[in-house]
Amino acid sequence: MHPLGDTDPKQFIADFFTSFTEELLESDEDPALIVDRYHTPDVVQIADGHRMDRDKLVAHTRPVRKNRPSSRMEVHEAIVDGDRIAARYTMHVRQRSKDLAIEVCFFGRFAPDGRMRRAHMLTRTVPAHGGNAGPRQPGPGSPDGNEGAA
Questions:
Q1: Nearest to 65 by CA among 133, 15, 140
Q2: CA pair distance 110, 119, nearest whole angstrom
Q3: Given a cut of 80, is residue 12 above it in pLDDT?
Q4: Residue 136: closest CA among 75, 94, 99, 102
Q5: Burial group, residue 30, by CB count within 10 angstroms (0-12, 13-18, 19+)
């Protein structure tokens, strides 16, 4: 992981979720070890009011690995203030021959080493344009791993 202050915020958030997801999908390594590389032990993510701590995040990786959706992340804007980042992005997801587009408003805090400490996400599904998911990059950091979203 790269520290938050070392890169463009749009690139940082895209790289964070893309790398995390790629490691989950391309490795047989214990998902808990991968989660721990990208998240602090006290991580809390709240997506649309649903709270996930570390244990729930690890459990959330199982359907992502099973479903193996493909996706691409389009970051529209992102700003950084110290250890905090706010971003607006769209996840374009393809799973089981179904295309989804999920707009996300993300507010997060990161540790000095680049691991996620806290995240609040508000999401909404918007019309998807067929076949645009691109290379496999879904993730549990996206809104809903069961629908291909990490």
A1: 140
A2: 9
A3: yes
A4: 94
A5: exposed
Contact 131, 7 (CB under 8 A): no
Instruction: Say which amino acid occupies 142.
Output: S
Q: What is the pLDDT of residues 60-84, one digit of tens each?
A: 988 888 877 788 999 999 999 999 9
28 Cβ contact list (under 8 Å, min separation 6): none
Residue % of the chain over a pLDDT of 70: 83
Bridge pairing between strands 116-126 and 39-47: parallel
Q: How far is CA 30 from CA 27, 33, 110, 138, in A?
A: 8, 6, 23, 18
User: Are β-strands 84-95 and 98-110 bridged in parallel, bridged antiparallel, or unpaired?
Assistant: antiparallel
DSSP string, 11-28: HHHHHHHHHHHHHHHH--
pLDDT for 10 beyond 70:
yes
Under DSSP, is residue 115 helix (H, G, I), strand (E, B) or coil? coil
Token look-up 């609040």 returns: 120
Query: H or E stretch including 57?
Result: helix 54-67
pLDDT greater than 60 at residue 107: yes
